[in-house]
Amino acid sequence: MAQKPSGVRVYNVLFPVYMIFLFFPATWLVILPFNFAFDSLVLWLAMRHWQMQDKKGLWKKSILRVWLFGFTADLAGAGLIVLLYFVTNSLMDFTDFTTWEPLLVLPCVALAGWLIYLLDKKWAFGKTALDAVQRHKLALALAIFTAPYTMLIPTRLLYRF
User: Fold this and answer.
1) Which candidate, 19, 15, 24, 9, places its Cα nearest to that of 94?
2) What is the chain's alpha carbon radius of gyration, rounded to the nearest angstrom?
3) pTM value?
4) Following DSSP, what letter does each residue of 77-100 receive, concatenated?
5) Measuring CA to CA, which residue among 60, 78, 76 is closest to residue 151?
6) Taking a C-beta distance cutoff of 8 angstroms, is the pair 124, 58 a contact?
């Protein structure tokens, strides 16, 4: 005799929902080009805002590293979420955006933004003709506008439970 399902659902998610792309490589086909385009847009707009010369040459020299460092920083932020999950040894329900969860996720977003800044300033723009102030400005713009703010989206909104 078959048993009926108990109706119990497990809503705990270890990673933010956007990290599902790690487990389903087909979504990389959407995420990778979107991230590349967004990094390119932020870089281009920042260069335009500060009226930098040779935008196309600078973009060509740095965009691949900017893009890869952005992913590295995002993964480090997600890794910190996992680490904090295990360190606190509590049942964190990422589908319920309570008052303490932003306190857990904000440092992870900040870590990713800080890493984006450091990696871009030192290595993405390190071999360009930019001076230190220009490298700082571009790295800061990328860190502010490309940090993984999607970590702050409650998964309950995405799952619509």
Assistant:
1) 15
2) 19
3) 0.78
4) HHHHHHHHHHHHTS---TTS--SS
5) 78
6) no
